[in-house]
Design a protein that fits this description.
Layout lengths: L3 H12 L2 H35 L7 E6 L17 E2 H10 L3 E10 L8 E3 L2 E3 L2 E5 L3 H4 L3 E5 L4 H6 L3 E5 H7 L10 E4 L2 E10 L14 E5 H7 L5 E2 L1 E6 L5 H15 L10 E5 H44 L1 H9 L4 H39 L15 H28 L2 H6 L2
Parallel strand pairs: 6-11, 8-10
Antiparallel strand pairs: 1-13, 1-14, 2-12, 3-6, 3-13, 4-5, 4-9, 7-10, 8-11, 9-10
Helix pairs in contact: 1-11, 2-9, 2-11, 3-8, 9-11, 9-12, 11-12
Length: 421
């Protein structure tokens, strides 16, 4: 089956009409090229999106107080309430498998009024009162100095960590902010660190740097927040889903604030884990579409090979008749046609893989010289498993393409074949 004569015959059969062979092979080449490029593009998009989540505790949710939508225990519908610092301890005590429960308060907002001054310079910035754990729940790189620690919390130190855009807005070029003071709503805070944060979408990259972090306790004291908590960032332990645990968290809040157990509007939340799971599901769907479209395009090329093999068998009817008359078995005829089909399919398919690899290498080479930290597309590539799957598809496709022509070849009777002109 794999003798030198068989391979010589295959090469001679395919090279007898080079133009027809190349056109036929192009269908398979293009199909496998599209398949690899689509899978690599999907992988690049996935890498880019997940880069936006890098450093972030994705098994988290953010929770805030809203308006009660149902009357309960003599309390009216529509009443407002606030989280308290005691809620944090209650959640930690009553809900298992939670890693972090971080209370947070906030001043300012997007395009808010100027609330921070330093000398003659002023700016409008988001100011957060936080615990040290928040840096493990949201991505942030400390570019100088340090972040909040528990000594700051316990001693209610008036210290602040500022974003790079805050530094640009309040300080002169080259000026060192560490150890200097800024005034937040009239209260002095000493700068102990600077940070740079990655945005999750690219559009708010600048706004993500316009934030100031201070200890939660000193924030509450300086701005008369008392025991009030604006909102919380809650992260579950590895192996536990915050999506499954959040109802227990809500139950604790409802019990402590006399909210109807079925009032689902009283506690607002953003489930990051749920959104992250949806994104993962989206990429599974994209991979399915890539395989589906790529295989359909490949199938059209396979049909082209099958048609050409039918023509080849028709052209070689007399030759097949002579071989049958000389004692060739049906299997030897069938195997010869199948080998020609598989050979042509694999050669054209491998050319498609090499071409796709070259295109991807060029794209990655160009992207290596670019700043991809805020891009939604990163390192488009396919792993060896995809290449192996492509090879299996090629072999199976080659068999299918040659099956019908091979069956037609062995159905030819030697006498009828010899009479064919």
């Amino acid at each position: 089956m794999f003798s030198r004569d068989s391979w010589s015959e295959i090469i001679q059969a395919l090279s007898s009409n080079w133009f027809r062979t190349i056109l036929t092979a192009f269908g398979v080449l293009w199909g496998i090229f599209i398949l690899v490029i689509l899978l690599a593009a999907g992988n690049g998009l996935e890498n880019g999106v997940k880069q936006g989540f890098s450093g972030m505790a994705t098994n988290s949710m953010f929770m805030w107080a809203q308006t009660a939508s149902k009357p309960y225990k003599g309390l009216p519908k529509g009443r407002r309430y606030n989280f308290k610092t005691g809620d944090v301890a209650a959640i930690k005590q009553n809900v298992p498998n939670l890693r972090y429960v971080s209370p947070r308060n906030q001043l300012g907002g997007f395009r808010g009024a100027n609330n921070v001054t330093r000398g003659l310079k002023t700016g409008a910035y988001n100011v957060y009162g936080d615990y040290p754990e928040i840096i493990k729940q949201q991505p942030m790189d400390i570019t100088s100095g340090r972040f909040i620690n528990y000594s700051d919390i316990n001693e209610k130190r008036k210290v602040a960590i500022i974003g790079e855009s805050v530094k640009t807005g309040l300080y002169d070029p080259g000026e060192e902010p560490i150890g200097t003071y800024i005034k937040i709503n009239g209260v002095n805070f000493m700068v102990i660190g600077t940070y740079k944060k990655k945005s999750n979408g690219g559009g708010d990259a600048e706004e993500a740097q316009k934030e100031i972090y201070v200890p939660f306790t000193s924030f509450s004291q300086a701005f008369n927040m008392g025991e009030t908590v604006g909102w919380m960032a809650i992260t579950a332990q590895d192996g536990s889903s915050i999506t499954k645990l959040k109802e227990q968290v809500f139950d604790v809040i409802k019990l402590r604030h006399s909210i109807h157990p079925e009032d689902d509007r009283a506690v607002g939340n953003f489930d990051l884990y749920e959104e992250y799971s949806k994104i993962n599901g989206l990429f599974v769907a994209l991979n399915f579409v890539a395989y589906f479209v790529g295989i359909l395009v490949l199938l059209s090329g396979i049909i082209g090979i099958s048609n050409i093999m039918l023509i080849v068998v028709k052209e070689r009817t007399k030759e097949i008749g002579i071989r049958r008359a000389l004692g060739a078995t049906p299997w030897s005829i069938r195997s010869q046609v199948l080998l020609e089909s598989i050979f042509l399919t694999i050669i054209s398919g491998m050319a498609g893989i090499v071409l796709a690899s070259g295109v991807l290498a060029l794209v990655n080479y160009v992207m290596d010289g670019m700043d991809t930290s805020e891009m939604m597309f990163l390192n488009p590539s396919v792993n060896i498993g995809v290449v192996m799957i492509a090879l299996i598809i090629l072999i199976v496709s080659g068999l299918l393409a040659g099956l019908i022509p091979a069956q037609n070849a062995i159905k030819v009777k030697p006498v009828d074949a010899l009479r064919t002109e």
